[in-house]
Structures
1.
Amino acid sequence: MFTLHFLDEKLWFPPYHLADEQGLLAAGGDLSVSRLLLAYKKGIFPWYQGNMPLWWCPDPRFVLFPENLYVSKSMKQVMKRGVFSFTQSQAFGEVIWHCSKIERSDQDGTWISNDMIAAYEKLHEMGVAVSYEAWHNGQLAGGLYGIRMGNVFFGESMFSRISNASKATFIWSVEQMKKEGVVIIDCQVYTEHLESLGASFISRQDFLEIIADNIGNE
């Protein structure tokens, strides 16, 4: 029988195998830098429900190995034509704000609360949270953000204001990460959008072993 663990001010998480079938592991606690860094090192990520953070570690895990990135013929043309220009961590605040405003058919409101934004902006100031941006005619057209620890990138959210902007940003970001030695990109849970770009499922155990080998002592 599943028992939901409630966190207090103590810095800890229950063992991942105690998560329920959807990957829910714990609730409560805070979004301090220390807790967030500990969570990601353990393969755990937060989503908000109401005023309480929920902590997840799903099995299987949806990931992309950079070498498996799939770029369709149409997207190759988009990239070749230079429809967008790209930057890294030049508009982190704007990216996370736009991500928080996306209307999602399967969710009632956003899970990117003001507390989440504040917490990830602190991580960005530390150089841990990064963003990738696509620009079109000088305007922010799309982007994504996530956590970079060692050779692992934990993707959090992406947005698009015009057609193909989020796909183009993702493709460019993966190509950059590949050059930098990133070995795995955590996509957290399944989306058809990311599957079309080459993401697939691996077991939670395999995922945790990979990140343990590639995060180091951060």
2.
Amino acid sequence: MIGREKQIERMKYLLKTNKSEFVAVTGRRRVGKTFLIDTVYRKQICFMITGIQHGNMEDQLMNFAIKLSEYTKNPVLSPPKDWQEAFYQLKSYLKSLSKRSKKVIFIDELPWIYTKRSKFIQMLAHLWNDYLSKEKHFVLVICGSASSLVTKNIVNDKGGLHNRLSEIIRLKPFTLSETKMFLKSRRINLVDQEITKLYMALGGVPFYLEQIRKGESAVVALQRLCFSADAIFKNEYDNLYKALFYNAEKHEAIVALLAKSKDGLIRKQIREKIIAKGSYNRTMEDLILSGFVTEHLPFGGKTHGTIYRLDDEYSVFYHRFIKPNKKQSKGAWLKLSASQAYKIWTGYAFESICHKHIDEIKQALGISGVYTEISALRVQGNAIEKGFQIDLIIDRNDNTINICEIKYYGGTFKIDKAYAKTLIERKQMFIEKTRTKKQVFNTIITNYDVLSNQYSLAVAEAEITLKSLM
């Protein structure tokens, strides 16, 4: 398995403890949650059930009865009438098992099983509190792509499951480095620039990366997967949010709005164009908890002026290129990837990648052990003052600040006299606006490298390339 070392270590540790454990595994759709759990706990699983998407309570209970019969080897007589009876039957089966080693009960896609007024969560809490937690040989694992529902109803539950979880494992998409290793494990050897082009469009989602074929360039792969007549990712978006959220239209409306914004939007800008306050708060919370949207605090840590950005590469790529070009097929991406719209998008996409690889950036700067706060800053210009924007600020505990200039280019990035003047002025405006007493460094992050000349040497105190992010 590529990556996931820390998660695997934590999960295996729970098999060695002298008490029952309760684990929640969350993460976006297609990120590999079920694969991870099955790989680590395959030999210990004594019962597993997967929720039925859009199934009602009767569907879920029948599914439970069928799965239980598979493990008990008893015929299905009739489904339990409710979850209280269902978990009573499960408890009877679990009592018949040996106590010599840990047994894993795995409930996959829990949000699909959970239906209103079903009392599923309450009865699950009762099973844990009344039986499982009092034994020493169980690991209860719950999993679901609808991370917001799991977080609200399990992790932050104020009732029977309050503070009951032993571990919360949030599975994120692969980093650039893990993506490179994953592709190599499939004998797909691409240079860093090609991997980045794929990552900007599909992110580090394992299921998406599994579709890449040996011998394909990024352009050829994206043409086949996103723009050909039977492209697998042409309609992936249609089920992505509907599989996670009730009334997904509200979530999709915010996603579509953010996908078209290069620099992200503040709360006021989103609410003016989308939905009423109450619905907005719940919907935005869902998207943040599920990892699709990230909050970027302004410099100084004040929540006022927080910038919201769409953090899912595929969703951005879908709205920017796939959706507007669904009627095109042959050679569509070859044409689009040479357009000005593509060049503008790559700048935004590479900036998003940098925000996801702060640890790698800190390592390249030699400050891995230094506490930092990550932020951004927008200053609106007026008749008196010139406005400016910094999309990545690394505020360090060693009395230093890196203000980062992120550039995605087709080759070596060159700083000329005019651009050097812009960087010098922006640095001075930042110091004056924030009144910081810290040392401020201009930091250039680019996908290739920076041409060494009199201007780069004068204004760039630090340079980071794609190699460091890899």
3.
Amino acid sequence: MKKSGDRTGDRIGHSRSVAELVPRVGRQAFRRFGFAESAVVARWAEIVGPAYARHSSPESLRFPQGRRSEGTLTLSVSGAHALTLQHVEPQIIERVNRFFGYRAINRIAIRQGRPVNDDRVPEKPERGELTEEMAGSLKMISNDALRGSLEDLARQISITTGLPKIK
């Protein structure tokens, strides 16, 4: 009979998010591309904010020979946003170093290209038109927040065609 503290072969009992698993699963792959700390990639939007994360992604992190500080972070940045990121380089360096808890990087190298996370941070979707029939049927709903949400849903449905596509 197993003791209550013995978990050999048993499930832990809770599901985990992918973000929790990335550091363990991807550690070797990330190290090969210059990331000793995979959390930088997994938490890039948290580190720099969604506005910058939408147009950039970390590509590699290189340190000088024999050191683990004052490295160079290489970013892949989309199109004209490279100039914007160049102007805010000091703030990004400060945010990344705050994340690490020490002066991990002192320089950012920007490479123009398509960021890895370009599809993960969606732009604001376009809005369709609300038909008079639909607007009339939604007027009966007294809760403003619910009515607004349903109107947005109806607008989104009105611009779709065919079956949904899952990427």
4.
Amino acid sequence: MQPFEIALVPCLADNYCVLIHSPGTGETAAIDAPEAGAVRTALADRGWRLTHIFTTHHHGDHTGGNQALKAHFGCSITGPESEADRIPGLTRTVTAATPLQFSGQDITVLDTPGHTLGHVTYVWPQLKTAFTGDTLFSLGCGRIFEGDAAMMWSSLQKIAALGDETIIYCGHEYTLANGRFALVIEPENDDLKTRMAEVERLRAAGLPAVPTTIGTEKRTNPFLRPQSQHIRARLGMRGAPDWQVFGQLRQLRNKA
């Protein structure tokens, strides 16, 4: 039996909650809880009971189900210390220095600010999986609401350093729109063209284009590719620092 089972739960219009279940202990964790109803249904369908919620950041479309799920299941809710007063139902705060475990397995907490100042990413080393919330998306990245471009670029670099085989679950299904933007920015990228054909097939069938991997994102996601000479030439930024190229990409994406 696998040590963990993972289920991707669509919520609201385009959010994802990710459930992680340990058959050995019966514990089940949710990465973010956008809404209670969809999460409860997914749990009931699988016969799982929610014991933990790990919150990536304070936005309501990631925390909207916290209170109702906590009231129903008595689960703990963990979230970033610097956003403690903005996350409903919080029972434990964490920083990058906080020892954290789920079902006997260590979890690494990465500080990944930019989208919000306290945003964190949860990494399960045993699963070779990272839960990136609204920092890194499939073929995209989150808007910069509370930080700046240099901060967000630094956060993305932390995630990219996890290793190409690392599986990435993100907080939204934006892959198709992100990919269309990416093709405008780097139409020469054959890996991107191949990936977009697969994304279009999946989405047309009503299937998620998540999870992805770090290696796939490095090859196809323009927000991890500011070093690309094609991108730099298209933006007229051949000699600019990577973070500035990234920042210009984010501004263009905001207008797309």
